[in-house]
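Standup notes, protein team

Yesterday: finished cleaning the Trichococcus flocculiformis set.
Today: Amine oxidase domain-containing protein structure.
Blockers: none.

Input for Amine oxidase domain-containing protein:
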Amino acid sequence: IDDGMPTYHGIPLFPNGIWQANGLTFDAKLRAFMNSLFLSKNLHENPEYSTDNFLEFRLGREVVDYMAEPYYPDSVYGSMELMPVKLFDDNLVTIFGRAHIGKNKKEQLLRFADGSGQEYTFKGGLTTLIKSLAQHSEGHLYVNQKVKSLSSVAEDLLLIELNGRESMRAGSVLVTTNPQESLSFLEGLTSEVAIPKVESTSVGTVFFKINKTAVKNPPEGQGFVIPRKSSYHTTKVVVLNNKWPLLEQAEHYYILVEFGRRLEETLIELADALVMEIIKNEVKEILTLAEEPLQVIFYRWEKAVPHFSLQQRQEMLDDDYPVDREYAKRGVFVGGNGMTGYGMENAIIEGKRLADEAIRYMKEMEKNNSPN
């Protein structure tokens, strides 16, 4: 895309922008242009239609595969093939839900444009958040604990078994682990309703330290994304020197490579050494490295990204969803990555919601048990 052409997650904000997109066929550009001008259909109101269906109707298949999908990693947004668009990214409805007509449309859409000011980062890294949270929970925080089971021992009392040898009693419990992990200790709590079975995707990250002189094809900007229909396993490459001011003048390049998508589990299941070799060879080819990286570190996140089907998601969005209702009656409030959404923003919103529900529950129990 031309640097002067405004985009949202790599997708042109305005119909004319599609003509500047490299890598699309003329037919794909024409379809996207015509659809964005004239087609108006409320697909976003139907939870049976995925984000993938919505964007294909509005912009065409090629735009989805080569422009939209790479900018929406599963680990942050979930799968656009399994998420209704209003839950996936409601801004897509605002931008592409209607034909590009109307008064002041340009000014309204420009506030969504990619660029400076659309992203926030901690100057001291993510540890800034962890240290801040620790200040409020010091003395009450258990770490390196494995929940083995959760059971109800009385109407208003829960028993948590930790590590198979220690028990803890609680009036209310918030569950925000991965849904696949939660199933192991929640299934025995009630026989009336169960958390829906979930398909989970594993992802990986490889960190490279590379001599700057060895990079013959340095990327522009902070990095790049790679579409699914590519021969590469790599999905995203970030040059940390260009992203973090702390590393801007560093002697070496520090590069973070992400890989792993839904239905692409083969690579992540291989041995660490083999995975690193495959990703290293891809990076060497993409960046045209003249020598081997100085350092390579591999991180594996198994079953990290849960995916529910469209039908499951439709049921979960119901205000009277039985899973929420039945567990809440027992003082258990269930959340976690993928339940209502993905990413840091969703985690904060969901954490506040679950805390409010638990506090209301405990106050109600205290009121009912009070002799006054």
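Follow-up from PR in the comments: The chain is about 35% helix and 20% strand.
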